[in-house]
Amino acid sequence: MATAELCDLDIDELGRRYRARDLSPVDVAAAYIARIERLDKTLNSYVTVTAERGLAEAREAEAALRRGEAGPLAGIPVAYKDLYATRGVRTTAGSALLADWIPDRDASCVSRLRQAGMVMLGKLITHEFAFGIQFPGHRFPPARNPWNLDHVPGGSSSGSGAALAAGLTAGALGSDTGGSIRGPAAFCGIVGLKPTYGRVSRAGVVTLSWTLDHTGPMARTVRDCAFILQALAGYDPADPASSREPVPDYTAGLDQGMRGLRVGIPREYFFHDVKPEVVASFDSAMETLRRLGALVQDVSIPSIWAAPAFMVIMLGEAFAYHARDLRERPELYGEVLRDKLMAGALFTGEEYVQAQRLRSRLREDMHRALAEVDVLATPTTPGTAPAFATVLDPGFPFGRSNMAPFNMVGLPALALPCGFAPNGLPISLQLAGRPFDEATVLRAGHAFEQATEWHRRRPPLQ
Amino acid sequence: MTVERSDLTMDELRDRIRVAGVHIPEERLALIHGLLRDALRPVRAMDTREALTLEPAPTFDAAAERDRHGHR
């Protein structure tokens, strides 16, 4: 099988072929490494490629498969956003501050995927300290969008989105404080899941904002995200926010379809300034869900307009995390990031507390909406990936986010492809659910994916 | 739930920068002003007397059930 075909197989297919002895994890790892070597000079999705380690782990996986002792994800290639600590492998967080940091232990998520048998291909570029979009002054060259190299892949899990879309890994981990898993998934035409707050450990992942940070899987299909989530989910004493909520089987109910599921569309806020081609794709997606048997209705979230208070919490916490380095070593931060982090020092204590109170109200209203429906559906982003020329303008503002409200309330939210714009760039659907009900969100996403072909499209790479 | 209160002004921003003792270059002030103004708009619109029992969560628990007044 040719390299391109091997690197296009999803996790489900790879696992089946490994177990049938039809395919070798070593051959697959080698194919991925060769493809990274060939394509990533242009895409810049990896900051570090761990070829030797990847091949060694692939050999271990192959041996374990032969013995019948393999973990559930044995031999599946994975790469980590360079925010996840990896033992013995440089972890930069995209920053000059950590340019030479070689952790002496793995992040909990990395340990869990290793135990499940996954094969580490390397570390994926992140925006500096996982903050927002591409700012001028980043230390590392930016990842580029495989669908159009002049456009951003989204952020901050930019390398994760680009690498998956380009077939440079089968699975990836991202982190999501205000949309950093779902944004790159949307802009790169892949799937990303921000699980419930507390569902997946943050231990060993560099902090941006303690109460908003989430970790989670990114892949090319919903089912693949479910496989990775299964290996990640569960209590971790190393993460103070980790939940003891039991972990269900995320793949067991995937094929139950949409019949009887209620889908709520919150029309306020989420459709403000959304591009017509995105609205058209969203409407078409809702028609598909109806056709599959879903009951689609509008719902109201009265306090949704409080969502921009997200920035008070995020900037306040980010400044608290970085305060000492910002004062003592400001030159080690990218200039625009530094100024935005400094803005976190400008809120009063009262404002931070009021923003947290607004957050409590938003959570109440979301829970009330989710008492009427099983999932909420919105466009993931209001438009397609912007061009570098647009976002590298230092004055480029943060737009209002359709993703950040779900960080505010901690609910699980999935981004998956639902169309393409006339400019050839992907459009994405966001589905959010009740606390710890990732299973229903994944079920709905999988049903949509099975009824459409958007996730099968590949970027025109040479 | 909402009260009328004006947006953050550029003068207020300059005062805040002085009090916080941080440096933000002049050419970035408009950007930072927009960031703070938008973030603070819902906070300033909140009537803090209306829901005195609505509590901020010191540790955030996505699944915590609360009533209209923030009580578990």
Report what the structure shows.
The complex is a heterodimer of chains A (462) and B (72). In chain A, 38% of the residues lie in helices and 13% in strands. Chain A is of the alpha/beta class and 462 residues long. In chain A, helix 6 runs parallel beside helix 7, helix 10 packs across helix 11 and helix 10 packs across helix 12. The model of chain A has no long low-confidence stretch (mean pLDDT 96). Chain B is mainly α and 72 residues long. Chain B has one domain. The longest helix of chain B has 17 residues. The C terminus of chain B is likely disordered. The chains are: A alpha/beta (462), B mainly alpha (72).
- Tell me, what's the shape of chain A? globular
How do the helices and strands follow one another from N- to C-terminus of chain B?
A: HH
Main sheet summary of chain A: 11 strands, mixed
By CATH, the superfamily of chain A comes out as Amidase signature (AS) domain
In short:
With 462 residues, chain A is α/β, with parallel strands linked by helices. Chain A is built from 15 helices and eleven strands. In chain A, α8 runs antiparallel to α15.
What is the strand and helix layout of this fold?
The complex is a heterodimer of chains A (462) and B (72).
Chain A: H1 3-6, H2 11-19, H3 25-43, E1 46-49, H4 51-67, E2 77-81, H5 108-115, E3 119-124, H6 158-165, E4 171-176, H7 182-188, E5 191-194, E6 214-219, H8 222-232, E7 262-266, H9 276-291, E8 295-299, H10 310-328, H11 335-342, H12 349-372, E9 375-379, H13 388-391, H14 404-409, E10 413-420, E11 426-433, H15 438-451
Parallel strand pairs in A: 2-3, 2-4, 7-8, 7-9
Antiparallel strand pairs in A: 1-3, 4-6, 5-6, 5-10, 9-11, 10-11
Helix pairs in contact in A: 3-4, 6-7, 8-15, 10-11, 10-12
Chain B: H1 10-20, H2 29-45
Features:
heterodimer, A: 462 residues, alpha/beta, Amidase signature (AS) enzymes, 15 helices, globular, B: 72 residues, mainly alpha, disordered C terminus
